[in-house]
Design goal:
The protein is built from nine helices and eight strands. It has 228 residues and is an alpha/beta fold. It has an eight-stranded parallel β-sheet with strand order 7-6-5-4-3-2-1-8. Helix 5 links the parallel strand 4 and strand 5. The relative contact order is 0.16. Bound molecules: pyridoxal-5'-phosphate.
């Protein structure tokens, strides 16, 4: 049996693929942030990734992320919260994250707003491009006004838009749609043109459509221990 690729090999394979996709799109790979999503993995794996040079990490569940980030507070890492977030947990998440990619409700804006002179929290507005209203994200008809409210919230820095491509379909139309929406808000929000899109199975398509922040889990970390 051939040996399974190591963590370092998987990381460099994905980084090569990111660079290739960027070149094909005539984009500079240095302008693309690769966030490694470490949910369900122990702090020790984050440490290994850190030693391999990774600085941007993502988590999606507060009860798991909070102790993990605390155990890694000696690292100079940046943490992004990418999962659905309950308003009543938002203040706590804000305390240990540098960015939230799933801002999609007014109650979340309220909970994340901070009038004290803190470092602003990077905020991505999640857009729901599926027909399923139960999935996270702002519906298209509400997007413009919602984006304005995030922009005006004290202590939040609007960075751009985020989406998860619909399951079981070609992801490219969704990524293209997010890019168009971003262009649509560019006149009012010229500093909020970031696009958080692309996961293990679809990051190349996302790069082709202008992704600036990739959220990649299993392709780098391997199978998630508890939930495969
Ligand atoms: C888990 C997760 C990812 C990473 O998914 P992979 O398919 O493992 O790359 C990206 N975005 C969100 C919102 C997630 O919850």
């Amino acid at each position: 049996m051939p040996d399974l690729p190591s963590l370092g090999q998987r990381l460099s394979t994905i980084d090569d693929q990111i660079a290739d996709a960027a070149r094909q799109a005539s984009r500079d790979p240095a302008l693309i942030t690769r966030i490694v999503v470490t949910k369900f993995h122990p702090a020790s794996l984050v440490r290994e990734l850190y030693d391999l040079g990774v600085r941007d990490f993502g988590e999606s569940r507060h009860q798991e992320a909070q102790p993990k980030v605390a155990a890694l507070s000696d690292l100079d890492a940046r943490w992004s919260f990418v999962g659905q977030l309950q308003s009543k947990k938002a203040r706590q998440v804000r305390a240990y994250c540098d960015a939230i990619h799933s801002v999609d409700r007014d109650s979340l804006i309220t909970a994340l707003t901070n009038d004290e002179s803190v470092v602003p929290l990077d905020a991505f507005v999640q857009v729901n491009l599926t027909d399923d209203q139960g999935r996270g994200g702002v519906l298209l008809g509400d997007l413009d006004s919602f984006v304005d409210r995030v922009e005006n919230a004290a202590g939040l820095k609007l960075r751009g838009l985020m989406t998860v491509a619909p399951l079981g379909e070609d992801p490219r139309p969704a990524f293209s749609a997010l890019r168009s929406l971003s262009e649509g808000i560019a006149a009012r929000h010229p500093d909020a043109q970031a696009l958080s899109m692309g996961m293990s199975g679809d990051f190349a398509e996302a790069i082709a459509e202008g992704a600036t922040h990739l959220r990649i889990g299993t392709a780098i970390t391997g199978k998630r221990p508890d939930h495969g």
